[in-house]
Design the sequence.
């Protein structure tokens, strides 16, 4: 048993590490025995609402019930949200194996950033893109992935310089050096296809080397996991690409504290300030702004609620005038949305195939940690299909099935390079035994 596998903190760090290190990697090709694709439920789109100049709030708070096998990243993608947004809105929730029947809050309510209402506005703090489609027309919003710490996405005004379908990725020298040092050399260019981190659509910014693009790692959306570019879910970048012409202005801001008005109420939306900002200074300026606004209000601000909202930083707009109710009341009143049979983009795991090749990624006595490890692997980009198989009182996390030993060895290498996992080959004889365990002795 891996000691690391029993440590949930390690698993959380592992998932984040993988999505960052693979931010621009082209993983080795592996011959997988894949299942047939099942029907996919239509994704629940983000609310698009006209935003009069006097209103700064769009959308509404919602919730959904978890089903067995769901993860928060699955739920986030289906409901048009990012990884960190759902995680922060549900503090303490199990990201990779939430209990079936538990209620997950969906923060589908947003305060518009303090920026010109034209073209594209990206708020790095909220990791959201807002597309202003015209005066008194709907605002469309998407979650984004942004630059990791040390490789921040630049702020300021720019525009869409050009666009491309199925772009080729010309790998920057700095990224090639990083991967070479990790024993994972990259080519000078990556053609269009499943290994291309730019995805199917790219909008090149006027600031050189920065792009708004799709991804082959969709479960990194809503995280700091790029080399500075802005990435969207594949289904979102396609819509944005078709809606946005060349020369569209782009404004990138970093506003962790957003104040907005709707229906006569003042709301505060708080995100934890990122490392690029002076957290104390940003908070000081927020309080000065709120005190100035309070002098023009007919009601006083509830300063206790303001402090709670800032401290908790759950990314949910909270009413902060006295008598406005609180976050808990909003959570109770949040609309419960139906959970479809299958979430959009939820990874499919091939059935256990007796006699195929597998890679044992871990073996543990804890079923929950085994499920989490399998979920982490299934959410890599491209997916490392993984399942949990019980044998006696132990749980095996198996990646595969692979068509042959060569493909399994390529998977072992990827696990080591991307995730620092020492995988072990499971040959046809052992996979037959494990398949019988899974089916209770019946031939699968």
Sequence:
């Amino acid at each position: 048993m891996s000691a690391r596998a029993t440590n949930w903190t390690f698993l959380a760090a592992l998932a984040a590490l993988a999505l960052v290190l693979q931010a621009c990697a082209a993983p080795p090709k592996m011959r997988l025995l894949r299942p047939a694709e099942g029907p996919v439920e239509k994704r629940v789109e983000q609310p698009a609402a006209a935003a009069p100049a006097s209103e700064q709030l769009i959308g509404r708070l919602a919730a959904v019930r978890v089903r067995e096998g769901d993860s928060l990243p699955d739920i986030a993608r289906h409901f048009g949200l990012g990884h960190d947004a759902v995680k922060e809105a549900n503090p303490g929730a199990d990201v990779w194996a939430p209990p079936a029947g538990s209620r997950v809050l969906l923060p589908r309510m947003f305060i518009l950033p303090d920026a010109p209402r034209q073209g594209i506005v990206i708020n790095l703090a909220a990791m959201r893109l807002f597309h202003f489609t015209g005066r008194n027309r709907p605002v469309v919003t998407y979650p984004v992935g942004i630059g990791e710490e040390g490789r921040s996405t630049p702020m300021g005004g720019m525009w869409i310089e050009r666009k491309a379908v199925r772009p080729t990725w010309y790998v920057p020298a700095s990224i090639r050096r990083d991967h070479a040092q990790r024993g994972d050399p990259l080519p000078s260019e990556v053609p269009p296809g499943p290994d291309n981190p730019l995805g199917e659509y790219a909008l090149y910014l006027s600031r050189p080397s920065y792009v708004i693009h799709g991804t082959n790692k969709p479960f990194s959306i809503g995280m700091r996991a790029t080399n500075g570019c802005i990435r969207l879910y594949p289904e979102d970048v396609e819509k944005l690409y078709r809606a946005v012409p060349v020369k569209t202005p782009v404004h990138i801001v970093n506003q962790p504290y957003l104040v907005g008005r709707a229906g006569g109420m003042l709301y505060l939306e708080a995100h934890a300030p990122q490392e690029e900002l002076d957290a104390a200074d940003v908070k000081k300026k927020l309080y000065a702004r709120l005190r100035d606004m309070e002098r023009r209000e007919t009601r006083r601000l509830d300063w206790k609620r303001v402090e709670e909202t800032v401290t908790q930083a759950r990314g949910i707009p909270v009413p902060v005038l006295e008598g406005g109710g609180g976050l808990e009341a909003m959570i109770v009143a949040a609309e419960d949305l139906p959970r479809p049979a299958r979430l959009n983009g939820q990874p499919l795991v091939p059935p256990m195939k007796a006699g195929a090749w597998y890679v044992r990624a871990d073996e543990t006595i804890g079923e929950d940690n085994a499920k989490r490890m399998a979920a982490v692997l299934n959410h890599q980009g491209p997916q490392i299909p993984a399942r949990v198989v019980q044998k006696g009182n132990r749980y095996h996390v198996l990646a595969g099935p692979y068509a042959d030993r060569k493909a399994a060895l390529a998977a072992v290498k990827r696990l080591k390079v991307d995730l620092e996992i020492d995988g072990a080959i499971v040959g046809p004889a052992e996979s037959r035994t494990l398949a019988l365990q899974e089916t209770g002795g019946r031939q699968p």
